[in-house]
Amino acid sequence: MFLKPDNLAPVLQASVADVRAALKLLEERGATVRAGDGWMVRSDRRMPQRDFLMRIHPLMGNLVRLAATNITPEQAAAVADAYDRFYLPSSGLDTAGRSEAYREMLMLIAEATGSAFHQTAVTRALKEAGPLVDMIVADVMRLPLEHDPDDELARLVNALKAGDVVNAVQAVEDHVLVVGVRMDRLF
Question: What is the pTM of this model?
Answer without folding.
Answer: 0.72
